[in-house]
What does this fold into?
Amino acid sequence: MADLADGDKDRGESQCRTAGVEDAFDSNGGSGYVGNLNHIKIIAGGTPTPTPTPAPSSWQTQDVGSVGVTGGASISNGTFTVQGSGADIWGAADAFRYVYQPLSGDGEIVARVASVQNTHQSAKAGVMIRESLTAGSRHATMSVTPGAGLEFLRRSATGGTTGWSGASGTAPKWVKLTRSGNSVSGYASNDGTTWTLIGSETITMTSSVYIGLAVTSHNNTALNQSTFDNVSVRVGTSPPSLLSSSNYALGRAASQSSIWNDGQASRAVDDFTSGTYETNTITHTDYEQSPWWEVDLEESRQISRVEIWNRTDCCRERLSNFYLIASDTPFVSNDLTTVLNQPGVSSYYFGGQVGENVEIPFELNARFFRIQLAGTGILSLAEVKVFGN
Ligand SMILES: [Ca+2]
It folds into this structure.
């Protein structure tokens, strides 16, 4: 277990961090990549490397408002453990522990609140989008309490009162916040797939905000220790129908060895599985030696299977005899043999031809996924979906 990067640079806690991973942190706001910590000990099929590529965002943590006890946070195997004091997230000023990263513009955070310690029936563990790190900041929070149900909380004016929408429920519970323009919505779910809207509010925050996890004990003399898993942050706008998907590849940055006839790589992560090329949702490379397509999940994920959807209006045979390749570090070459021999790379060879689609069991932790033909040809993919458990 390792401490999260601490947003309070003055406290000098770096000596407490687990030996061997402190290089992963940069409390000066530079190249931290806490979200990639799993990577250090879980790499399938090769030699673990201690120097992973930095993820695009890093987590930081600090107390917000007048807390009675200094809080903390850590991450282990994808589980965030957050300790927070504070009277509440309520009224005109909040007091809690925040684990956050910057967000510019639209975005979304999803987490499963695995447990909420019962320091008070109205203690809170949830996801938060917040304009600033001051106590009276505008914010929206979707939280789970030990005895007061699920709460969508929001403060629309700096230093103003807190609005509330509620529903029944206890941990474990999935929670989600989406920001689209000035609209912020809070959702809850039992399974991370089917979501119920708890509340929505127009909150005019600056474009640059913070997005993350919040815990308050509702007892300012105690720390509340609560846990979260399945934490993910999406930056940018996606149609609501896409937001509840557990497909880690959806909307992520994709690339390929070449592009023919507007068959760009992003078409394989647009959630549309149509096999008809004219629907503009299928990729297409040139005819070339071992063409490839790949996607960056933005952080290392625990993966259980990959679904690959084929073009079906013609040319099904093109998607045959290929490798599915995974890595925690970027692929270094166009050359298939070089990539298969890259340290830390795992691969699955699919001999034969894909019909409409194929599901490949692929249990490992990885961030980058590539599909590469073994021979010369054209690579076309209708869709690629990467799922966890
Ligand atoms: Ca598609």
